[in-house]
Structures are given as C-alpha cells and as structure tokens.
Amino acid sequence: MITTANRLNTVEEYYFSSKLREVRQLASEGKPIINMGIGSPDLAPSKAVIDAVALAIQDENAHGYQSYQGLPELRSSMAAFYKNNFQVELNPNTEILPLMGSKEGIMHISLAFLNEGDQVLIPNPGYPTYTSVTNLVGAEAVYYDLAEANNWEPDFAALEKLDLSKVKLMWIGYPHMPTGARGSLELFENLVAFAKKHQILLVNDNPYSFVLNDNPMSLLQVEGAKDVALELNSLSKTFNMAGWRVGMVSGNADLIDAVLRVKSNMDSGMFFGIQKGAIEALKSDQSWFDSMNEIYKRRRVLTEQLAEKLGCKVYKEGVGLFVWAKLPEGIQSAEKFIDQILHEKYIFIAPGTIFGSNGEGYIRFALCVKEEKVQEAIDRF
Description:
The protein starts with 14 loop residues before the first helix and ends with a helix. The protein has 2 domains: 133 residues, Aspartate Aminotransferase, domain 1, CATH 3.90.1150.10; 238 residues, Type I PLP-dependent aspartate aminotransferase-like (Major domain) (Aspartate Aminotransferase, domain 2), CATH 3.40.640. It is of the alpha/beta class.
C-alpha cells in the first residue's frame, strides 16, 4: 500500500471543497439551492478587460511560457495601481511579484520564510488557509484572539504576554475576512511597530479594500513598513476575476526575491492573455468601483434583512464581500444551524466556526447572489 506523506495528517480537505459537494448533490436532485456561502463574484469583469484578453490571444507570443515575474507592463500597472489608490511607491522591477491569485502567495511566503518548528501568529477568526499552510510546512500555529468587543482587532496587551521568541511570521488581513472589520491606519502603525519590536515578518492579506469601503488602505502606507512587511493583493474580488487567478505580493526587494526563489521552482508565468486582461483591469477608474458598490449596497441591504429575519444581529460596521452576523441567543452550534437551513430551505450559509473557534455563534453571508435570489431566500421564511 502506498501511504501519504505525514504532512497530510495535519490538514483536512478545505471546508468549501467538501461542503460544496453536498450542496451540488442537493442541486442535482432538483433542490432550488441558493448559495450564499462562498465569496465567488457572480459579476463579470469589464468589457475592456474581456476585449483585452480576446485581442491578446491573437498575439504571436501568447501561447509560450511566460516570465516567472510576469510581463514588465503588468508589474508597472500594479505599481501604478498602488500609487494611485494607496499613495504607495513600489519599484515594479524589484518590489512586486505577480501571483496566480493571492492564495498561492500564502504558500510561497510560508515556504520562503518558515522552518520546521517556527511559530506563526494567526487571527481567530481568520482565513483557514493560514493554518493549513502553516501545518503543511511544519511550522506551529499560535492563534491570537479577535473579538467583536474590540472591533475584531488584535489585543496588543494580550499579544505582548505571549512567548514570542519562536514567532517568525504574523498573518493579518484588513478589511478583515470573515467579519468585514475595516482596520485603520493607526492599527497598521501599531502592527508595524509590534513586528519591528519582535522581529516578525508581518503579512497583510488585502483583497477586499475596494468592496463597500470608502477608505481603501494598504499596510505599506505606514512609514518603515517595508522593513518588516509584505502585502498580498488580488484582482479576484475588486475586478470580478476570481477564476482568472491573478494576484500580487509587494514589499522590499530582498523579501520579494525570497518569494520568487520559491515560486520559480513551483510554476511558470501566468497565461499571456490573462496578464493583458489584468493590465486593463488595473487601469479602471473610480466609476468602476462605484458601479460595483452600487450593486453590492443593494445586495447588502437585502442580506441584512435575511439575517435579521433569522433572528441574527448583523455586524453593521463591516465592509467587503460578506455580511457577518451573530446567531440568536440559545443557538449552540453554527454548523447545525446552517445545516438545518440548507436542508429545510435549501439556502447555504457559511458557519463562523470554519474561520476559528471565535467564529462559533456567528454565520457569514456572501454578497455574490443576485438581488432577486436574496429576496427569494427572504421569502422562503
């Protein structure tokens, strides 16, 4: 018998990978499923983006291997995007590395900087991939609590009480997933100071800045952040390009070079046409963000009505692609609650527990469902 690697004993199949099989099975049985669980944008990229890809396919250079660092004009577009939207200066030749989605970057960064036995600070609740990748590379997850009472921000007094001697890396992500907490420049300044004090690599996962958020921010806006920080970003949510797999990591040249040494041994450059589409997307002006947010605002209003119809209390301060809501008093299990709704009303909602123990008692709705479908979900109750 061929056995699997021991590292697989540290992880399970990603929740949405397994749960969506159940959802698809119900749909195949003719059940009228409304999927409000996963944050996969249902809207299309702009026509200019689609046209750019269509034109690029005809290019004589379109179908060969591409550079591990992406097209120079793609990196320049990413640098311009950061300059125009965050007032952050980045050298496109040394301080930006295009990625096949920011999720890829979580693995590359972990492989580049973590040794077996190193510790990693991971938010609870937070993106589950931080934990799974930490386990896969043989490092140790150390969770830090985020709580609604503290606006889902780290408690620095509690962090300072931890033994930080083995901590090599800290994951953050604002706007926060799953809660939608905005964060602030003051929070970023405190995080950079904390990372410098304890010689920790700070990584901000930043794909939600432009969704229902009137104040997009970057960790790299903080003076001196490049000394200790990297930032992941993505075109998935901002430009409705989730399936295209386009992201980036930014930071100082030495840190980016370390990530490139991993990436260049794991894959090749992304398809030429996708890069050309990404270049066009990054040129989008404020009217693009405004048009998307008008849609998401209407969806959020209806989704909050659905949550409140279920007796939940909505976290109203949230931004981004999700609505985070606290379950009614007396509900013991978020997973049992959402399973009952799935099998009785055929509506799939994500339980907060998949994001960590501090997610118990909460559920998350994605704003990736058309208004008429959200209204249909409301009507089912």
